[in-house]
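ugh ok fine here u go
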Amino acid sequence: MNLTMLPEPNALILVAVINDRRDLEIARLLGWYRIPLRSAPKVVAMDYLAFYQTGAFGEERWQIQYVAPVRGHELTTRAELLRDEPNHPRANEEYFKIQLGPLVRLPKPVPAEKWRRITFFYTTGEYLLRAETVNDLVVQDDERRMLWQALRERASQAQNYQAGAPPELPLDAALLAALFEIGSLDSGRTPAED
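structure:
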């Protein structure tokens, strides 16, 4: 195991639920994880994802074994992510696609013990690397205020990125007119009808 791939103590980590082996293989082989927009946590711009494996994992259930660095994220639909399921009931719903680096196995798994019904929650690299159980991942007291401040800063950075105006580019009037005519021809309408 490459210990340099493990999170730094101050890394922001989102503990994410992984419900089946296929999703873990997608993360491992294709380098992404999906989160439905309707149930997504407020901030998805993290340093790492830690994967909590549910009861579907047999002997490896109810624990965190893997982390992966986050490389970026985008908003798309489930149909775009899982093209082999075009008729899925949620095919047209929006999902975050979290791009990942390589999955790294933790030196020792973090078991859930009694706390098994988990949704998304935040922690840090320091908490993850010293945790004996999932309960040990809960950030406490003054450190909790620092964690929330870091999350607010991430959210602010993401909003500034999304709200930023596109760069000003010089527009060529002849090119715009040509594009307008092509668009009108494609629609079967004349420019006057638009």
